[in-house]
């Protein structure tokens, strides 16, 4: 599966004003790219907006963790039949989230 998102680690930064929130990518060395610059004009409180942007900044790591978890969960399911239904549902939820994040349609 080829990921089309910006490579490198993603980081959250506060902008110049309390309503500005930035997600940047560090591609290695001193090279840094702004992925998103979000200004809170939505009417939600700034703490909630900041939390939303931090979640977006973590999304790349969450996607990578989900992708890496699938083979381990499948191996566990294969070794313990009594938990297969619950585990299979967990794998299906992860696969759906991965598809949503990586779908290029």
3D structure, described in words:
- With 105 residues, this protein is an alpha+beta fold.
- The protein has one domain.
- It is 50% helix and 20% strand.
- It is built from two helices and three strands.
- Helix 1 crosses helix 2.
- The longest helix is centred in the middle third of the chain and has 34 residues.
- The two termini are 14 Å apart.
- The mean pLDDT is 79.
Q: Short summary of the structure?
A:
With 105 residues, the chain is of the alpha+beta class.
What's the SSE blueprint?
Blueprint: E1 9-14, E2 20-26, E3 32-39, H1 46-79, H2 84-102
Antiparallel strand pairs: 1-2, 2-3
Uncertain residue segments: none
Largest sheet: 3 strands, antiparallel
The portion of residues assigned to helices is: 40-55%
**Overall SS class:** alpha+beta
Q: Write down the overall geometry.
A: elongated
Please indicate the percent range of residues in DSSP E strands (runs of 2 or more): 15-25%
Gyration radius from CA atoms, angstroms:
18 Å
How many domains in all?
1
| Total beta-strand segments | 3
Please name the defining characteristics of this protein.
105 residues, elongated, alpha+beta, 3-stranded antiparallel beta sheet, single chain, 2 helices
